[in-house]
Amino acid sequence: MGTKLIFLADVHLCPERPERADSLCAFLRAQRAETQAVYIIGDLFDYWTGAKQRRLPEWAGILERLGDAARGGPPVGVIGGNRDYMLDEATLAPYGLTSLGMDHRFERDGRCFHLVHGHMQFPDPWTSRLFLRWLQGRTMRWVAGAAPLWACRAVAGMLRFWRRLAVGRKDPKDAQRYDPAAFLPFFEAGADVVVCGHNHWAHDYTQALARPGSRLFAVGPWALGPSCLEYADGTFRLLDPRL
User: Fold this and answer.
1) Where are the domains of the chain?
2) How far is CA 83 from CA 102, 159, 164, 198, in A?
3) Of 21, 37, 48, 98, which is most buried by a Cβ count within 10 Å?
4) Of residues 229, 198, 173, 238, the one with CA closest to residue 10
5) What does the angle CA 19 – CA 236 – CA 207 come to, to the nearest 5 degrees?
């Protein structure tokens, strides 16, 4: 097992885009010799309505392929995102994947890493963030768990359609940037390195953060090929086909 850590986000797997599962599985298999752990920081799936979604063969097939690709390689930890916050350990564990909740902290080389998808730190209108907070709250999670699968998929479809209208087909290089100040609470709570995704633009915000000894990275989406952050021996390397 290697010593490298890999961080990626926003793969948005779904049956309509089989090429994404193909490339992610190939990527995971390629990490077996060099990598100690892989972290997927939100939106592994384009949507996830709960454990009952596994009843659909096309979605169960994606999970089975991921499990096969991860088997024998470094552990794969999954953070929940705004699209797949319903992912849990009961869903992922049978496939050898680990649910890490909505954020995750760990220590490495004397550094404290904090992983979070970033949708609650993104500069969307406050009404949008309030809606997401309500949608991901305990009550609505219970409703989603109790509702029939067809109803959950209908709601997920409407939310996906609304998001496409809101975002449109903007060029990723014109994506709205994060304000590093939104992540200060994580650093003030002890984090040395924060890694996020969500806005589909890979960038090292460390200089803008202007906090000595702290690092802030956003990884890009999987759409045009592997976008990820590598960490090994105290060194970070941000990889993205658009950089």
Assistant:
1) 4-239
2) 12, 9, 13, 10
3) 48
4) 198
5) 110
Provide the CATH number for the domain formed by 4-239 in this structure: 3.60.21.10
196-227 pLDDT per residue, tens: 999 889 999 999 999 999 999 999 998 767 89
Q: Which amino acid, residue 107?
A: E
Q: SS3 helix, strand, coil % of the chain, rounded to 5?
A: 40, 20, 40
Q: Where do the DSSP E strands lie in 9-138?
A: 35-41, 76-79, 98-99, 103-108, 111-116
This model's pTM is above 0.85: yes
- Name residues of the chain where pLDDT drops below 70: 1-2, 163-175, 224
d(CA 239, CA 243): 7
Rg (alpha carbons) of the chain, rounded to whole number: 17
Report the distance separating Cα 115 and Cα 124, nearest Å.
20
d(CA 69, CA 64): 9
